Amino acid sequence: MPDIKHFNPDIVLDDAIQVFWRQGLPTTGIQALVTATGVSRSSLYATFGSKDGLYAAALDRYIAQHSTPAFAQLSSASSGLTAIEEFFSGLIEVRCSGPVAGWGCMVTNAYAGPECGDPGIRTLLEEHHTTLEAAMRAALTTAHDLGQLQEDGDLDAAAAVLATLAYGVNLRSRGGADAQALTDTVNAALAPLRTRPSPQEHLPQ
């Protein structure tokens, strides 16, 4: 008789995310996923097709749960550079403290692994990057309108740099970098973008 599905696929994906996020795809065996989810191998295959299929679904759900809300908040914020600082501050806090400290980011981990060569995974990663860069661009536009940035700055280039910096924070945190070192790097990246005080502001009163 065929297996009858008696489980919630979303809950299974949440459990699978924890395993894939911590261990990555190549080093995760199907038995580890069976143990983590409490669902039989045959039922996992019947629902997701393969371990790779389960990974792709888990990565998509990870992006929806973790990345998309953060990018939407960054895009819609009205505080410009402050929103970018808060984005990185929150990112560093999650990466360096709490229950998932040292795990890095599931997306960044995927970029660094062989799974990046899969066309479906690559599409998810590229869409993630495009959304992140657009969110940075939106926050920088707000910062420009608020007078927080130098007038001659290239916002597209700055958005690309900051998006890449986010991946760097994720990767370095997985390698053991501490929160202060990562914060210092972010501050150094933002410093050249800020409006410089006019010479008159330095004159004695």
Describe the structure.
The protein is mostly helical. The chain has a single domain, classed as Tetracycline Repressor, domain 2 (Orthogonal Bundle), CATH 1.10.357. It is built from 9 helices and no strands. It has helices spanning 9-23, 30-37, 41-48, 51-76, 81-96, 106-112, 119-145, 155-174, 179-190. Helix 5 (81-96) runs parallel beside helix 8. The termini are far apart. The model has no long low-confidence stretch (mean pLDDT 93).
List keywords for this structure.
mainly alpha, 9 helices
Secondary structure blueprint with pairings:
Elements lengths: L8 H15 L6 H8 L3 H8 L2 H26 L4 H16 L9 H7 L6 H27 L9 H20 L4 H12 L15
Helix pairs in contact: 1-2, 1-4, 3-4, 4-7, 5-7, 5-8, 5-9, 7-8, 8-9
In short:
The protein has 205 residues and is mainly α. Helix content is 68%, strand content 0%.
Q: Strand-residue fraction?
A: under 5%
Mean pLDDT: 93
CATH class placement: Mainly Alpha
Q: Multimeric state of these chains?
A: single chain
CATH topology type: Tetracycline Repressor, domain 2
- CATH level 4 superfamily: Tetracycline Repressor, domain 2
Overall helicity: 55-70%
Which radius of gyration do the C-alpha atoms yield?
20 Å
